[in-house]
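Z., the sequence and structure:
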Amino acid sequence: YPAQPTTSIMKYPRKTQNLPAIAGSLRDAGYRTKYYYGGDADFTNMRSYLMSSGFESIVSDQDFSVSERLSKWGAHDHLVFNRLLEDIKAEAADTTMADNARPFYRVLQTSSSHEPFEVPYRRLANDRLNAFAYTDSCVGDFVKRFRELPQWKNTVIVFVPDHLGAYPEQLNNQSVDRYQIPLLLVGGAISEPRRIDVYGSQHDIAATLLAQLSLPHQKFVFSKDMLNPASPHFAFFAVPDLFGMVTPENLLIFNCEADAVAVDEGTAKGENLLPGKAYLQKLYDDIAKR
């Protein structure tokens, strides 16, 4: 579901309970669903949102010993990845539980690459870059060890950041680079390596992933299958007081508070202003009905 520039739907549990979510769709399709986070799962209504979206259980800071909760946010990333991997190993070894025959959907949220950038690792002089390198090393180690498990051959791992917000230090909400992020799909279930250069948003992951699994995604009215050539290829994003609409011809960021265009680049300048406003109006109309 798209973010909003002037509110946060996560603050309204009665509305988030009515939102479609990947976890809920996969749970309904027979998947076991679980969320892993080294921090406080009750931060900003997070637990309420996760449970209502379809996660059956949550691993959070309270599931780690006090000696392991050494960062500002709780347990460091390598401990959370270790917990996820140990759970997967245990399920592979326990063939007596019928539940283990069901496919699984797991989400792990990293936190060590967030300020204050204090990590048990030193490779780079810059604290921010060093924290990113630490989280990257945790991801790489997890994949390396997961490849040795039997579940690997039938698994897709989705890697996606939320935004580029901490480096370079001078980035602000009107910095175009802040919104350019990668989406990586890896795992034994990927048939061949390829690079797909299309525009999309994080909320497009739902339709894209579910379509690849041959599962319905009509409930995700704001999500489009990025791998479908017939889909319109654009990206919409929002942060406090700003929204952006991006196509190959125009990158436009609109300042809602100032009621003015903040960034307008490309061969068709201004082209995305009305589509962006219409998209935002449709979003708020949808929120009002939830």
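Helices lie at 13-16, 22-28, 46-52, 77-93, 127-146, 205-212, 273-289. The chain has one domain: 9-224.

Let me know what you think.
H.
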